[in-house]
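Project standup — Tuesday

K.O.: blocked on the structure for the chain from last sprint. Re-posting the sequence here as requested.
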Amino acid sequence: AAHLRDPEAVAAWFSRALASTDYEAERSRELVLELRREGFTELLEPLQRAALLAGRCARGAGVLWFGDLAATRRRGQVLDAAERLLQDSTGHAAPRALLHWLVGVRDAGTLRSVLATWRQRYRVDATLWGDAAWAWLQVGTPRDVIDWLSDWRERPSTPAWVLTNLCVAEAAEARYDTLAEVAAAALRQRPYDADATLWHAVAAAPRGE
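H.V.: unblocked you, prediction finished:
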């Protein structure tokens, strides 16, 4: 579609691609960059924003939208624009893209501000709750992860990948009793999970088990 030089055709095709669950983060990022090289830069931004608002935007394209915003505005202005987007959006696309962008630029301070302002949204939804813990694991401290996931026992459906992220933080703080408990909970969900098995063994070592 890009090589046809037909903006309407490109817009329709790009919108469908953004909404496709088949596009992985890196592929969607490369798609945006390729269309920019083809001269469609001005066409893309409103389509990316519309996809983020609708909750159906491939993550790489969504992260690039935040990066482009940051390239032309001060960080406070970016945060204001991000908060307006979160306010008006539905689904996971916008809040997840924001987390991944903040991790990419290693901005723990803005992450802390976003999660304080939008605490309810990121905590009520189980997927966003787990994603926020992952973000803390990347740019925050082990204590940030532990505090964010402090209610994991009250969430019986917590995915094993969230629990193994918590294991990393518990191990870093040498909280071996809690580490054993978290690893055991992950193994109940996924008995052959390699990460959970490893953390269970780490927890047992100081106790000589």
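K.O.: great, moving the ticket to review. The chain is about 75% helix and 0% strand. Residues 41-54 form the longest helix (14 residues).
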